[in-house]
Amino acid sequence: MAGTRRGSQAMEIRVSSIDALFAEFHAEAISERPLSDAARLYLLDLWEGARNPKPQALVIRAPAGERSHTDEHAVKEAVRADFLDHSGPYHRAAHFSHRERLAASIGIAILLISIAISTTLERLTGDVIVAGLAQGIVVIGWVALWVPAQRFAVDFVPHRFERRSYARLAQLEIRFEWEEREPSPMQSDRTSSTHLQAERRR
Predict the structure, then answer these.
(1) Do the Cβ atoms of 36 and 20 come closer than 8 Å?
(2) Rounded CA gap, 184 and 66, in Å?
(3) Is residue 111 pLDDT above 70, yes or no?
(4) Coil, helix or strand for 12?
(5) Which residues contact residue 84 at a Cβ distance below 8 angstroms, ignoring those fewer than 6 apart?
(6) pLDDT band at 174 (very low <50, low <70, confident <90, very high)
(7) What DSSP line would sit under 39-102, residue for residue?
(8) Partner of 11 for a Cys bridge, out of 5, 7, 55, 93, CB 3.0 to 4.6 A?
(9) At residue 6, does pLDDT exceed 80?
């Protein structure tokens, strides 16, 4: 990936392909696909680390071989839409899966049940061993909420401070610079393999 040049009014990101900008496994039209977490956080770091005056444009450097079949307008719309989503409330930016929602609900239920059991045990007896057991049960309840709590601390809280930066990123002019690149050894091997298979079929 690239960066920001000193004295430059543009941020730059260099990708191996246009698809590398976006999250994997999404089958939507490119204008509706979210950015990958890696690309989004890289651009956020570039923006927040840039000196004033802040960059006015984002330059995407991509292989020239993709230019003919890339819808530049759709890519620009997707990048801006992603930044706009992240400039709003966290629930709009974060996409919670059914599994994550279920895990959070189960964690809360386990915590409440563990607190109820712990309180009951402490009221029934003042025995030190029982008191220790009661506290251990509460710890189990908090452990059940570990993942949701981690997401709150690592994602939700920082997001409140990043929203302004994402709003500014959404306003950047987006340009493309198509670069002629030598194919990587892996790409060359794949091309050779494809040609060999084609020859065998003849």
Answers:
(1) yes
(2) 15
(3) yes
(4) strand
(5) 166, 167, 170
(6) very high
(7) HHHHHHHHHHHSPSSPPSEEEEEEEGGGGGG--HHHHHHHHHHHHHHHTS-HHHH----HHHHH
(8) 55
(9) no
Distances (CA, A) of 63 to 70, 152, 175, 187, 188: 11, 38, 14, 13, 15
Q: What is the structure's pLDDT at 105?
A: 85
For residue 119, give the nearest of 109, 133, 107 by alpha carbon.
Answer: 133
AA letter at 108: I
> Domain extents for the chain?
10-87+170-186, 98-147
What is the model's pLDDT at position 197?
46
Q: Rounded to 5 degrees, what angle do the CA atoms 147, 153, 154 make? A: 85
Token pair belonging to 153? 């601390």
- CA separation for the pair 83, 40 (Å, rounded): 8
Q: Quick check: pTM over 0.90?
A: no
**Whole-angstrom distance, CA of residue 16 vs CA of residue 123:** 64
pLDDT in tens, 52-96: 889 999 999 999 999 999 999 999 999 999 999 999 998 777 776
Nearest to 152 by CA among 85, 91, 84, 83: 91
d(CA 138, CA 115): 6
Sheet holding 10-14, edge to edge: 10-14, 57-63, 173-179
What one-character DSSP code corresponds to residue 4? B
Structure letter (DSSP) for residue 28: S
